[in-house]
Amino acid sequence: MSIIKSNNGDMLSNKKILLIISGGIAAYKSLELIRLIKRNHGEVKCIITKAGEQFVTPLSVASLSQNKAYTDLWSLTDEADMGHIRLSRECDLIVVAPASADLIAKMAHGLANDLASTTLLASNKPTLIAPAMNTEMWRNAAVQENVATLEKRGILQIAPNVGDMACGETGLGRMSEVDEIFTSITDFFFEKPLKNYNALVTSGPTYEAIDPVRFLGNRSSGKQGHAIAKALRDAGAKVTLVSGYTNLPNPNGCTTINIESAQEMLEACEHALPVDIAICAAAVSDWTPVQEGTQKIKKTEGINSLNLELKKNLDILKTISTHKTLRPQLVIGFAAETENLLNNAKSKLESKSCDWIIANEVGANENGEEKTFASDENQIYFISQEKTEEWARASKDNVAQKLAKYITKYMEENDR
Ligand code: CTP
Predict the structure, then answer these.
(1) Is 167 noted as a catalytic residue in this protein?
(2) What mean pLDDT, rounded, does the chain reach?
(3) Residues forming beta bridges with residue 95, ordered by sequence position
(4) Core-most of 62, 225, 255, 310, by most CB within 10 Å?
(5) Which residue's CA is the closest to the ligand 1 atom numbered 6?
(6) Within the chain, which residue ranges are assigned CATH 3.40.50.10300?
(7) pLDDT tens-digit series, residues 376-395
(8) What is the reported pLDDT for 155?
């Protein structure tokens, strides 16, 4: 089904949104979001937190939303009829934008000490949050754990962007743009575009055993592959994730098969076929020891080198994209390169017979930090037979959400 997204229409008619504006400079974007919802005939009521009121006024919010702006849990008039319960019962969706670190923490821990947090705790409605904060705050383990808790509870998220911050720093944490939030709202209300499709995603590194205690591995964190699995799941696809060892939790709502070696990954992928879409984001070891030692290899006095005989692993991506009977309709590979990124990536598009390649540079940046593998961000090139596009550096979640949109468009246009 094709959904035409316009920024001026009646897409949201009969839809009721409760917008919660918490404290952050990004609150100014919420005013534009209110206008966009109204222009699309949606109804929007707003709660502004005390901190939010430092950035936008109840008067501007009330004028744009054409509704009262709610600010006070202890309002005699609003709470006479239990305003905090009524506000959540009357809406179809709660959107928290911007979602500050403070409000996210309150949500994760079930605090209820103001109108916004009490309404959220008393809510029985789906909720979408658009986090916005300084990069270091976003990276803080406390925030990440709170966000993961909310994700586990089914709270939808619009991942923050990379960009300049009001504080003068640059990085991940900027609230998504208004049109991205608006698209997530409309995505929520309309049919999941990939709901009729099965997807296979590979993620993380493979470990090739040398002996019972050692292995050949690589620095892949699995963050990009897992983010893609989640974005496809959110678009409605039935996702099988085949993952090497990572520190990430298995995503909710996906069938995850945890493997170690390239051979195990290959077998799990072949077992998952047929699928409609395959995305090979894993960093698969090209080589594996000819023989895995049954005992730990010991040092020998006087011998200062060790020869490991390696054999080539089968190429999983190529095996899938050249499958005689079960080739998925869309096969996407990654190219991790330290040099000649575009040329090498384009050669992989041909040699591996896939439809698209997502190319990214790997290795250390000028500060000695890993550019791609361990990072939360990615800068990629999208390469198909028809075009090469450079995508702006963004969070891996953002890259995944954009890729899911490209996949949706492709599947709509090439529906078999
Ligand atoms: N890949 C795979 N199976 C392998 C090797 C790679 O499925 N045995 C896939 C990766 O998941 C990725 C793509 O092939 O989608 C390219 O992987 P990359 O590591 O960039 O390239 P290689 O094929 O390993 O080639 P090289 O190491 O020579 O760059």
Answers:
(1) yes
(2) 91
(3) 19, 128
(4) 225
(5) 284
(6) 198-414
(7) 889 999 999 999 999 999 98
(8) 96
Q: Three-state SS for 109?
A: helix
Mutation test residue for ligand 1: of 242, 288, 315, 349, the one with most atoms within 8 Å of CB: 315
Specify the residue with its C-alpha closest to ligand 1, atom 14. 317
Atom of ligand 1 nearest to the CA of 344: 29
CA distance 237 to 241: 12
Of 139, 212, 201, 190, whose CA–CA distance to 332 is shortest? 201
336 lines ligand 1 (CB under 6 A): yes
Share of the chain above pLDDT 90, in %: 73
Count of residues in the chain: 416
Distance of CA 206 to the CA centre of its chain: 22
Peptide bond into 126 cis (omega under 30): no
What is the reported pLDDT for 73?
86
Q: pLDDT above 70 covers what percent of the chain?
A: 96
* The pLDDT value given to residue 81: 67
What is the spatial distance between Cα 276 and Cα 415, in angstroms, rounded to a whole number? 10
Residue with tokens 């008067």: 59
Residue 397 CA to ligand 1 center (angstroms) comes to 22
Residue range 16-189, CATH number: 3.40.50.1950
pLDDT at residue 326, rounded to an integer:
97
pLDDT of residue 4: 34
The token pair that represents 125 in the structure block = 């409605």
CATH number of 198-414: 3.40.50.10300
Give 190-205 as a 3 state SS string.
Answer: CCCCCCCCEEEEEECE
286 lines ligand 1 (CB under 6 A): yes
Alpha helix (H) ranges present in 160-272?
178-189, 223-234, 262-272
Domain with CATH 3.40.50.1950 in the chain: 16-189
